[in-house]
Task: structure prediction
Amino acid sequence: MRLIAITNQKGGCGKTTTAINLAASLAASGSRVLLVDMDPQAHASSGAGVQLAPNAKTLYHALSGSPEPTALQETIVAVRGGFAVAPGHILLSTLEQELAQQEGGIGRLSHALAGLSQPYDIILIDTPPNLGFLTFNALRAANEVIVPIDISSFALNGVSKLFNMLELIKVKTDHRFTAVKALVTNFDKRSKYARQMLGLIRSTFHHQVYTTIITVNIALREAASRGVPVVHFNKYASGARQYLALADEVKQDGRRLDAQAFAESSQALLKRVAFELHHPEAQAIHVVGDFNQWSVSEGSLLSRRETGLWSKEVELPPGRYRYKFVVDGQWCEDPNNPRSEVNPFGSADSILLID
Result:
């Protein structure tokens, strides 16, 4: 499950618009998506079409625990297809006063999300337009961050403050973000200034900028005024197409991150094994086995020391391996390894066990 915070301390940068429309677009493309509205203004909730009864349970009740504990799952409202919302409430503005001094207060959202009984592919968290307690809570819960940047009023200083906060969270809480990317919003391609700012953003953030650009378009405003995501309002509008393209990018990032995590976890399992053979007269010694398809190559060649000791280190995952040395073209067992087994050809292979 991916947890993505959408945040920028500046208002009017398209943060909530992105939260609503990216969530709906991800759901439209087949993902199970939960939008968590951490903003006391609750614009993401109303913009997604959520209408609450006066006594309805909201995100505030799940995080506050008063007057009685409420599971986050109890607050969730289904919107359409795989799209659901954990609605915000004005009372969220009181949470800092309630929780700031409590142990684990900054991890309250993370704890609530861990207790969800229904699985989601992606959870998006819309944050308030500041770097306060609620935003800190959201970032502490997230493992990815999207930073919408309004190109019409781009300010590196403001964005740098956010990046400084992300670094502070990593240092203070030992929390790692797997990805932080900027999203250009409110782009007017007719404006020379906007094009210049786009170049500046790309040169500043390099690969940490989405290829998709959200342009100024009337459909996004009309959809917001009607309280529906643009993909539900008019899926053919440019705004809908852009957020669907962004959803594709976010999914591609997820596949890349999954592959990276798998590679890192696999790397962590590797054990370093040293193969050694003392043979001063040899001209070349290779080690071959199950781990390299029994192939004699430059990669299988051992290094010779002045003492006549040949050695090579190989990183292998846990398992059971057959192997042999090839000394000047002659195959032989490892004389230093008492474990061996007869192979189908009638000779013996040395056996390596890695736990």
